[in-house]
């Protein structure tokens, strides 16, 4: 049985989930979020192009540095509440105490407002483009926190509509206009940051509509307190900072230990990973509130079904990408120029690592939704330590490949540790029938054909691209065609909890 945090005294657990209900909701939310994330990704590429061509190399470098500082500072100002503002509203509603949600939101959002104002003031002192962005930091931090709270009500529409579509669209429109009129770096920075303001305003309106007119909170909160909220959030805040460091320290170390060309080689070789992260984020955010509810009520069957089905969909969506990039690495790298041709081994290492990571599913989120945020923190810190030690050891000898090996070790640490922990503490694992079928199907339709094609044709990008395109189209047809008769184990019929075999 799932071991969840203790049920609050006097709470009324909500049971009796309708067959197929959780998975239909997850599918709707996941598909919508995936579409929104795809738009965000495309808009991000458009933003990069506009800034690079509108500001030149020096100006673009300053812009990207300033926005990176802004993103990190925003993450710090959120105080780890993005998970808490999904976990606690979902948990309180599942336990039959929705009247406590308003108090929960105040406990989480007010400190974020204060922290974001203080962080913005600190950035203001830095000067330059960072100071231009600083006044908008509270809107960015609060918009993320408010939209997280709407997901606690099982609503993905505000996140998709406002954060995934509206904000990037406004950024593109503003930057495109400035590109046409040759705007200054300061104007570019403002055009990128200001869309967070309407995102916050619309997010607040959506949250108010979802919260409605809640009953007054009882005098006895029944186990939910500000201390409980922040005991859950504090490790997530520290883990968030560590995660940001984990995502950036490898590039910094490559540049410092092997030079800027090696850092560029490493960055280009691993750029494809972002696409898989969009899919993971889309599915995870759709599953998150329902998983919190099932763990709060001790419903092991629903929790297992959610985790295994979400992992199945993640593998089904991402393994073809990773297998194709690994198999046709020379073609992928040729898109960025001939001087990146030597990074094929790096690409293969990172693709293989992501195959393992996606097969573990959203394992860190499962651990967090079960209340084990301290375990999450320990895992991220361990992964960060592995990255630093491996990079310092391997980069001087192997260059960018050493960084790829270090990242692989860190990603495996950050996935296999929590996988063992949820297996021990919660008796959960992601390897249901659907996950196994999805993995085998992807290997059969994309992995094996790509490997055979590369062996036969060789590594010449032009010839390999032509042959690979034909083989990939045939594989995609076979993939879709095979998925239909296998739709039941793949979870495309949305059966009720308990249908999938472990």
TrEMBL record:
Secreted keyword on record: no
TM region(s), chain numbering: 31-52, 58-79, 100-124, 130-153, 313-335, 341-363, 375-395, 401-426, 438-457, 463-484
Membrane topology: Multi-pass membrane protein
GO cellular component, one term: plasma membrane
Subcellular locations according to the entry: Cell membrane
Keywords on record: Cell membrane, Membrane, Transmembrane, Transmembrane helix
Predominant location category: membrane
PANTHER family: O-ANTIGEN TRANSPORTER-RELATED, PST FAMILY PREDICTED COLANIC ACID TRANSPORTER
Protein name in the entry: Multi antimicrobial extrusion protein MatE
Natural source organism: Planosporangium mesophilum
């Amino acid at each position: 049985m799932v071991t969840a945090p203790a049920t609050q005294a006097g709470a009324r657990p909500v049971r009796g989930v309708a067959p197929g209900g959780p998975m239909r909701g997850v599918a709707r939310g996941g598909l919508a979020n995936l579409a929104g994330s795809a738009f965000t990704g495309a808009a991000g590429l458009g933003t990069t192009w506009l800034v690079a061509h509108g500001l030149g190399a020096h100006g673009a470098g300053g812009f990207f540095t300033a926005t990176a500082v802004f993103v990190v500072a925003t993450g710090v100002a959120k105080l780890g509440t993005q998970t808490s503002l999904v976990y606690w509203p979902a948990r309180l509603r599942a336990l039959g105490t929705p009247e406590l949600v308003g108090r929960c939101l105040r406990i989480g959002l007010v400190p974020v407002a204060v922290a974001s104002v203080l962080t913005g003031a600190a950035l203001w002192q830095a000067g330059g483009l960072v100071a231009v962005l600083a006044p908008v930091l509270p809107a960015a931090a609060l918009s993320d926190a408010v939209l997280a709270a709407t997901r606690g009500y099982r609503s993905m529409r505000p996140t998709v509509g406002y954060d995934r579509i509206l904000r990037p669209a406004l950024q593109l429109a503003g930057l495109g206009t400035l590109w046409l009129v040759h705007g200054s770096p300061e104007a570019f920075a403002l055009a990128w940051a200001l869309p967070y303001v309407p995102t916050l305003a619309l997010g607040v309106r959506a949250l108010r509509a979802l919260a409605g007119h809640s009953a007054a909170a009882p005098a006895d909160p029944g186990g939910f307190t500000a201390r409980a909220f922040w005991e859950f959030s504090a490790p997530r805040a520290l883990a968030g900072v560590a995660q940001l460091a984990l995502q950036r320290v490898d590039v910094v170390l490559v540049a410092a230990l092997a030079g800027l060309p090696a850092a560029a080689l490493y960055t280009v070789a691993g750029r494809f990973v972002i696409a898989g992260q969009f899919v993971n984020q889309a599915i995870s955010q759709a599953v998150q509130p329902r998983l919190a509810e099932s763990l709060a009520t001790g419903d092991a069957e629903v929790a297992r079904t959610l985790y295994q089905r979400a992992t199945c969909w993640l593998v089904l969506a991402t393994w073809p990408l990773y297998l194709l990039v690994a198999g046709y690495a020379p073609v992928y790298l040729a898109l960025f120029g001939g001087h990146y041709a030597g990074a094929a081994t790096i690409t293969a290492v990172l693709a293989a690592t992501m195959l393992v990571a996606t097969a573990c599913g959203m394992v860190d989120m499962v651990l967090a939704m079960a209340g084990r945020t301290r375990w999450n923190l320990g895992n991220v810190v361990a992964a960060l330590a592995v990255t630093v030690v491996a990079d310092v050891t391997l980069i001087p000898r192997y260059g960018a490949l050493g960084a790829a090996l270090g990242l692989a070790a860190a990603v495996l640490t950050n996935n296999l540790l929590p996988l063992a922990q949820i297996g021990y503490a919660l008796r959960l694992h992601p390897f249901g029938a659907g996950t196994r079928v999805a993995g085998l199907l992807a290997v059969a339709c994309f992995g094996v054909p790509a490997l055979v094609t590369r062996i036969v044709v060789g590594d010449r990008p032009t010839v390999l691209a032509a042959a690979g395109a034909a083989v990939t189209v045939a594989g995609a047809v076979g993939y879709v065609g095979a998925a239909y008769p296998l739709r039941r184990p793949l979870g495309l019929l949305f059966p009720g909890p308990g249908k999938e075999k472990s």
